[in-house]
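General statements about sequence and structure are easier to judge against a single worked case. No coordinates are needed to read the tokens, only the vocabulary itself. The sequence in question and its structure tokens are set out directly beneath this paragraph.
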Amino acid sequence: MAGPLSHIRVLDLSRVLAGPWAGQNLADLGAEVIKVERPKIGDDSRAFGPPWVKDQQGKDTRESAYYTAANRGKKSITLNISKPEGQAIVRELAARSDVLIENYKFGDLARYGLGYDDLAKINPRLIYCSVTGFGQTGPYREHPGYDFMIQGMGGMMSVTGEPDEAPGGGPQRAGVPVADIITGMYASIAICAAIANRAETGKGQHLDLALLDSQIALMSYQNTNYFATGKPPARIGNLHPNIVPYQPFKTSDGSVILACGNDNLFRRFCDVAGCTALTEDPRFATNGKRVENRVEMTRLLQEIFAKRTTRDWVESLEAAGVPNGPINNIAQVFEEPQVKARNIKIELDHPIAGKMPLVASPMRFSGTPIEHTMAPPTLGQHTEDVLRSLGKSESELARLRADGIV
């Protein structure tokens, strides 16, 4: 098997996005990921539609496009863990797994005898990753957490959007659930680190990942800007709080993003734009001064950009090595020559949809390359195969189905 984690088995009890995102990362890296879903209903996100995946005749299926974003490469089994027999099967799987991912509310799985302390007795090498809104400690630990509210609580919405006084101003959430996704990414890193540590110690451990913690960490320099000034950063739309010019400008027929991350790039831009006098102006000669004089800098550059077309600007800036780019919609993204050259869009065989378009993992390895071979599973697609691997007979499988366990 390809992938650096091809020796790892993951039991994924998580739902919706943060936990499943971590599970998908591990599947991309080659791990065998067994996703446990509720019988007949499955992961909540299976119902997050429309849009729905189309079957080979072009008709809507019961598979949501949302679900397919975070579950490629996994095996799906259905299991009712509220019943003792279902709990027993989870224990059997946990005893044979390296990693368990769950995002139940604090204490929920412990009520079923499936908490970390319970499963660590069965498998001391188990890495048990809990993903919750607020973590395993603190006064909010029993509260549910959702991406939108966490973006608000964690500061993201305070710096996203136009200023209150501007047209359309006010707090905005990011266009994708960044709190969920970054928590899944941090969980992936933590799991890989715990696997490396276990190779040295032979012991697993409990990982405590919280959406709020991860969202706050994602604020990066906005946090340290606050620490340095004592003032919370404000919303400034598409502007950058620390770099100027680093923003979009309207051209004669569209827009282009200019990203001058240092003074040398600004000088190169001015050469292309025919405004070298700005580099000698003490108000604009250094990035620090340009930040201080942002309003005037933006006004002057907007006048310059409006005189030429987007294509003219892009070609000229590219030739000079000045970072710039268009503002693409998603369809345009996948038409970019660079995106096509990197094979970002892939197709995998799906039992209902046929060829299913998906996005490849951005992780590239020279020695243990990632191979995408499994589309997001249909509900319970692998239940019988996985249970047979535990030694369940055909009569036992039939009884589990009849009793509503699977």
Q: What stands out?
A: The first strand starts at residue 9 and ends at 12. The chain has a mean pLDDT of 96. Residues 178-201 form the longest helix (24 residues).
